[in-house]
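> example.struct
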């Protein structure tokens, strides 16, 4: 298989085409642009320009204006927009149309829809981005006059596809175009032999991605290529180009190329593996020997890694560690962990909600009156929202508004069960009353409150619901007197009924940053705490 990407060579070509003065011979410039991609990609480091061009005028200009050195930090914004996939066909004269099938394009779209959240987590260390994937595939046929096409023609097609997307209401489209050169009547891309990303003169970012097989799968481990069983044929390229486009949407070297250091361009090939929930499983240099993963991406180099002037890792001990590492957490994500009930066992997190969860005033889990497990949130307008989590990657449902307003005014808000087993939402007012609400599971349905505790509940440091070891439903509280005792109350379900407290923890519970109840996987009732 050919090298993964020629983006750097494309950037150099565009830089030279854009900046070399018109007074310099065009034939000399054209000859320079025909140099091998590896030579063009490293032209910024050239010292003997006589080996590059015989034109003395062009040599003098290059000495003063060499192509920019690859960057390791971003100076311009990252991509904020939408990936648009196209069912792209080439039409040569007298030949049937040639292109990646609609079914394979749909599979690639589904892969990107899963992988993009993981990609954004890695690229967040370079800057802020917001990337959507359009569910609509745009059909496009490129009519040729022969069996070749140029970059200018290609970028014209990308602009047409992008305009169709904009007409359909897509925000800032980046066009994804596939090319399987092994298909019958597949044309030749003049001067561009490998995959790359760039931006047209009209400001359309695009990714040109080679595909080396048919019958694509999301895991991309179902082909026999170059005598390698279970070989990848598209996902390494697609993830590479999407990632580098997200970080450097202009394609002008103002931002770094974040995959090259961990790819074939630098002879340091690594991939990150994930399960169907987006949980990180580790890395590998050979996806054909890896098992148990749902999808993979081309690894993204850590911003802290030491790079040389070619954008490759300069410290041999970092060749793996700078490429293979878990994705960083991103502010506002909702993560889900599993606890098997044994020491140090908590799983890697599954990503179930993609953004903005940090904006809520309250966030807690509970059950509605039907017994359905829900995630409750209070937004900035004071509504009480209810979400469902099906347990799969990024799956959290659209919210149901179960409380229409005024929920911002509470001091505490949490879910639990009363002594009858009824699921309740507990709230403490600014005057210190403890209220209990029922949620029947329908929009705007939350019941009128029952006052179960008459006063003083606002003075607690922590207040939450749980069960003791016997399975009895309890309300736990940490007081601010008596050295921070942990107290336990019972709620029989009637007005003003909350029992006198039992002191279950005698001292120092004020020192925790967080304190809450839950269950581990074996079903044991636990109280969780994080020291301050």
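> example.seq
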């Amino acid at each position: 298989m050919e090298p993964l990407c020629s983006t750097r060579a494309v950037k150099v070509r565009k830089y030279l085409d854009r900046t070399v003065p018109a007074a310099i011979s065009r034939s000399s410039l054209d000859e320079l642009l025909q140099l091998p991609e590896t030579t063009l990609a490293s032209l910024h480091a050239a010292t003997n320009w006589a080996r590059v061009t015989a034109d003395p005028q062009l040599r003098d200009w290059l000495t003063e204006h060499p192509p920019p050195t690859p960057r390791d930090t971003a100076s311009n914004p990252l991509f904020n927009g939408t990936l648009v996939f196209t069912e792209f066909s080439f039409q040569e004269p007298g030949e049937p149309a040639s292109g990646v099938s609609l079914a394979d394009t749909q599979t690639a779209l589904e892969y990107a829809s899963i992988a993009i959240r993981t990609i954004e987590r890695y690229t967040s260390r370079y800057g802020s981005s917001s990337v959507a994937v359009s569910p609509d595939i745009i059909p496009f046929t490129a009519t040729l006059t022969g069996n070749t096409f140029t970059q200018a023609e290609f970028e014209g097609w990308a602009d047409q596809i992008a305009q169709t997307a904009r007409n359909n209401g897509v925000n800032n489209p980046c066009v994804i175009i596939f090319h399987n050169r092994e298909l019958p009547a597949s044309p030749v891309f003049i001067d561009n032999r490998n995959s790359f990303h760039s931006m047209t003169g009209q400001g359309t970012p695009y990714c040109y991605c080679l595909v080396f097989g048919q019958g694509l799968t999301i895991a991309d481990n179902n082909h026999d290529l170059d005598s390698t069983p279970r070989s990848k044929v598209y996902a390494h390229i697609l993830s590479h180009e999407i990632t580098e486009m997200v970080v450097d949407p202009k394609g002008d070297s103002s931002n770094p190329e974040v995959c090259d250091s961990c790819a074939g361009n630098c002879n340091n090939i690594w991939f990150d593996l994930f399960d169907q929930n987006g949980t990180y499983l580790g890395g590998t240099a050979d996806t054909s020997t890896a098992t148990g993963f749902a999808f993979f991406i081309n690894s993204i180099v850590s911003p802290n890694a030491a790079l040389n002037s070619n954008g490759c890792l300069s410290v041999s001990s970092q060749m793996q560690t700078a490429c293979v590492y878990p994705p960083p957490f991103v502010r506002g994500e909702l993560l889900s962990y599993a606890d098997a009930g044994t020491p140090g066992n908590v799983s890697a997190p599954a990503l179930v909600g993609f953004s903005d969860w940090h904006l809520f005033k309250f966030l807690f889990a509970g059950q509605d009156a039907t017994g359905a497990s829900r995630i409750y949130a209070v937004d900035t307008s004071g509504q009480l929202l209810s979400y469902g989590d099906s347990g799969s990657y990024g799956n959290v449902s659209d919210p149901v508004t179960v409380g229409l307003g005024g929920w911002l005014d509470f001091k505490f808000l949490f879910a639990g069960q009363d002594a009858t087993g009824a699921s309740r939402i507990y709230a403490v007012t600014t005057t210190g009353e403890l209220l209990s609400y029922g949620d029947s599971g329908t929009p705007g349905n939350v019941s009128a409150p029952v006052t179960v505790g008459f006063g003083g509940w606002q003075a607690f440091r922590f207040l939450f619901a749980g069960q003791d070891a016997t399975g009895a439903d309890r309300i736990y509280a940490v007081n601010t007197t008596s050295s921070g005792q942990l107290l336990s109350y019972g709620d029989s379900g009637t007005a003003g009924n909350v029992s006198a407290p039992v002191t279950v923890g005698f001292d120092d519970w004020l020192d925790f940053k967080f304190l809450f109840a839950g269950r581990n996987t074996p079903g044991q009732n636990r109280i969780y705490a994080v020291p301050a």
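> remarks
The longest helix spans residues 102-123.
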